[in-house]
Amino acid sequence: MAAFIRSVRGFAFGALVAIAVGTHPSAADAQDGGRTFEHWAATHAAPIRTVEPGDDTGDLRRLGPVIGSARAVALGEPAHGAHEPLAFRNRLFRYLVEELGFTAIAIESGLPESRRVQDFVAGGPGDTKQVVRDNLTYGFGGFEENEELVRWIRDYNANPAHRRKVGFYGIDLSLDGPGESTPTPAALEAAISYLLRVDPVSAQRLRARVQSFIGRLPEAESASFSTAEHDALSGAIDDLISLLEREGPALIAATSRTDYEWAHRNAIVARQAEGMFRVVPPDVAGGGVSPAAGQAINRRDAAMAANVLWVLAQEGPAGRVLVFAHNAHVMNARLEGGIWSAFARPPSMMGQSLRSALGDDLVIIGTSSAQNGVGLPAATPNRDGVDAALARVGLPRFLLDLRAAPADRALTAWFTERRALRANFTTYLTLPLGAAFDAIFFVDTLTPAHTARP
Predict the structure, then answer these.
(1) How far apart are CA 219 and CA 400, in angstroms?
(2) What is the pTM for the complete model shown?
């Protein structure tokens, strides 16, 4: 189903809102609210000196009150494959670690593959470029900005003065095949390989049950598996999870808690991926997004949210995590607008599940941009959309705490109405800004991510 995951990923393109009881915002209110918003934003925007990492974090310190004591900060990017969001993520993460005590980063990449990166940043063997290229999925290993992130974490952890080490996690399903919509065997094989170390008989029995599916997965369409085959695969995965949970104490004693936790999570990711895979609709004739694709996106984003909560559990009560993914995933809103208007029902996104689970322990920061630079497709923001309004503030880069806006009727109407936000370079989302994000980072122009040298 070639259009499915591309619809939310794709390299080709990649408390404020409370309406007074008994009142409803009008179109006039929203129009007045646009002018009010731009005036308010111009007086409250916190300028960001640069997106590039460095030692000077003075401008970032204004983010301290925005983040507060939240255990998780979710930072969105408007498109995959742009330099500015990746560079700002790296700069922000350094600040969060060094000055606010954050302990890990969790990115939109395959969770099973990220164990290798986690071991590397903890001091394990390997070369940064090769580890990143081999273990960040969906092509993200080809960006220099991701190499820089991993290299910095490894160097930070190597300093004996830093007693609390920084972790690295993927939160996504391990997906491949047509449109990246089918699960790879990575999660399942990692869990069975772990079991093979301590219970080879059970491991070999389970491997025999799934072996006929493993080779087919990366190139399969969901419809190429019969219902009975889907049931057989999911049944084997469920039995693997049950065995790991039943024998947990003995397995931990024979290996380590860390190895066990990763193996158990890999088995759960295999179940998450199969659950999404079985509802992926066939390709639409002539291309485009299937109206039925929303159900699979629901499952994928619910899985990513659950994986973020697992990361927080691994980091312990004192852990604090930066979550980095597409705006569409981190937002506290349903996926609508642009190419996603084809959905029969707008799917729920990861940010909604995380908000429900974490409440005020989560801060969501979206990213907006006004235009594409050289090397990216030409595009013009919607003049009534979020990006154009932020561009009229007149600053090249800034951060705006949306929760600090006054309870003004016209402004509330503007925040409540669904508005366009550029996405994937050439399309857009529509969202209620005040509900979707707690804060927004604006950068005037996007340029291509830096391609890592072989």
Answers:
(1) 44
(2) 0.93
